[in-house]
């Protein structure tokens, strides 16, 4: 399995916290999630790749890959003011479209696609240059790229094509040529195929569970490269679609597998869930062997089912249906219980809010009454203070007049004394009545 990977990806780098895949290197915008590897997200001008650290030895091999290309945009046509900026192609280089590439990098140039280049290569070539140029589809000699299978979703407006997109095609390099964009890919017979592997939001079968299976085989003895495809979405019969069969293909006996992706103005999510490589030495027809194995497994399962008596089959179906019905009822009951709990909690919260609001209103009224009472008591205290002051003034004046009367009369008879005492009592009664009236008007 050192040349393969498949979900789930559980290993995590303790230092970075990112998921890692044994024997594989991720770079650029590529990120490993638990269920898939996302090479490029739905964002413009991204490049991501994943490459195997171990070279594959042998001229006969077969690989199976499961990819998922999803996005919101339905299609991009010629640029116009009515289209969103992501679909405009006039302002970008002609080869800056969106594609995913499966590449086979020759091992003769380096001990690893991530190692430093050999001395014969340019000295300024960085360690990751081979994979970087793989991501940009430059199958030139410094990259060591010998085979590139392109999954192209974008139709450049400055090129003419004899096919419709999405389009899948293969390019082979003998190690001496630089990559040149195919002006007319599909003009030659059997150079590729149109296959709608892209799931946009407008498709009725768009789902995270739907993806495309890719099966590629190469035989050095027959010098033949074969590519076929299969969709897993509902509505497809599951049969394999023969995309291309190229002859006279000569690839090195050892090399590294790498997958890369690039986005331009058209953006998509490019995910890889499954990538398995195996040798096919001694296998006459890997395609047919794989298909026969699948059919044999399905037939065996069907025969095992048919060997049972009809009563047993009916009984098993009834049991399964009853168990399924019971599960649905239990789930429905759980949902109802959860709904009732939520409604109960919501009602309790609403009641608590109402009670709190009433309590706050009552406290506010009590504070208002206390404030008014304090204001009234303050006013009454002021009146009492004024009455005390008036009474003190009256007593002072009476003492003064009494002293003056004693001085002027040379003495006081008993009658005059009683008359003065009666006057004092009368004045005190008048003051007391006035005080009661004031207290009644302010306190009652």
Automatic annotation (TrEMBL):
Chief place of localization: membrane
One example GO MF annotation: D-mannose binding
Subcellular compartments: Membrane
Membrane topology recorded in Swiss-Prot or TrEMBL: Single-pass type I membrane protein
GO CC, alphabetical: COPII-coated ER to Golgi transport vesicle; endoplasmic reticulum membrane; endoplasmic reticulum-Golgi intermediate compartment; Golgi membrane
Coiled coil: 321-408
GO biological process, one term: endoplasmic reticulum to Golgi vesicle-mediated transport
Transmembrane segments: 415-435
Keywords, alphabetical: Coiled coil, Membrane, Signal, Transmembrane, Transmembrane helix
Key word Transmembrane helix present: yes
Keyword Lipid biosynthesis: no
Domain L-type lectin-like: 1-280
Protein name (Swiss-Prot/TrEMBL): L-type lectin-like domain-containing protein
């Amino acid at each position: 399995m050192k040349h393969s990977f498949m979900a789930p990806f559980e290993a995590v780098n303790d230092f970075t916290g990112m998921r890692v895949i044994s024997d594989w290197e991720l770079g650029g915008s590529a990120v490993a999630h638990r269920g898939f590897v996302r090479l490029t997200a739905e964002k413009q001008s991204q490049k991501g790749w994943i490459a195997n650290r171990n070279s594959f030895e042998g001229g006969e091999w077969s690989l199976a890959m499961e990819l998922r290309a999803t996005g919101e945009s339905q299609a991009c046509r010629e640029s116009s003011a009515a289209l969103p900026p992501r679909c405009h192609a006039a302002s970008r280089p002609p080869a800056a479209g969106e594609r995913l590439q499966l590449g086979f990098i020759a091992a003769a140039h380096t001990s690893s696609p991530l190692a430093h280049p050999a001395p014969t290569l340019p000295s300024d070539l960085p360690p990751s240059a081979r994979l970087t140029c793989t991501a940009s589809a430059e199958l030139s000699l410094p990259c060591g790229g010998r085979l590139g299978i392109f999954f192209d979703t974008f139709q450049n407006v400055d090129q003419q094509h004899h096919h419709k997109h999405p389009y899948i095609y293969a390019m082979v390099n003998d190690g001496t040529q630089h990559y040149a964009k195919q002006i007319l890919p599909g003009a030659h017979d059997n150079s590729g195929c149109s296959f709608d592997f892209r799931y946009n939001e407008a498709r009725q079968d768009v789902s995270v569970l739907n993806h495309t299976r890719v099966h590629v085989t190469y035989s050095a003895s027959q010098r033949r490269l074969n590519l076929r495809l299969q969709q897993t979405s509902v509505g497809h019969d599951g049969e394999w679609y023969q995309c291309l069969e190229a002859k006279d293909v000569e690839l090195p006996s050892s090399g590294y597998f790498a997958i890369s992706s690039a986005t331009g103005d058209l953006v998509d999510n490019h995910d890889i869930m499954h990538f398995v490589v195996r040798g096919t030495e001694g296998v006459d027809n890997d395609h047919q062997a794989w298909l026969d194995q699948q059919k044999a497994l399905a037939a065996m399962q069907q025969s095992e089912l048919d060997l049972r008596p009809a009563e047993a089959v009916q009984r098993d179906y009834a049991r399964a249906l009853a168990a399924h019905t019971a599960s649905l009822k239990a789930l429905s009951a759980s949902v109802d219980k959860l709904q009732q709990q939520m409604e109960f909690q919501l009602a309790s919260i609403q009641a608590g809010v109402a009670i709190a609001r009433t309590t706050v209103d009552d406290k506010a009224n009590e504070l208002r009454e206390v404030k008014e009472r304090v204001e009234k008591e303050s006013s009454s205290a002021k009146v009492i203070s004024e009455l005390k002051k008036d009474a003190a003034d009256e007593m002072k004046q009476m003492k003064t007049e009494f002293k003056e009367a004693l001085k002027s009369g040379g003495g006081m008879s008993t009658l005059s004394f009683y008359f003065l005492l009666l006057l004092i009592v009368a004045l005190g009664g008048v003051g007391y009545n006035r005080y009661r009236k004031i207290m009644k008007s302010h306190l009652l």
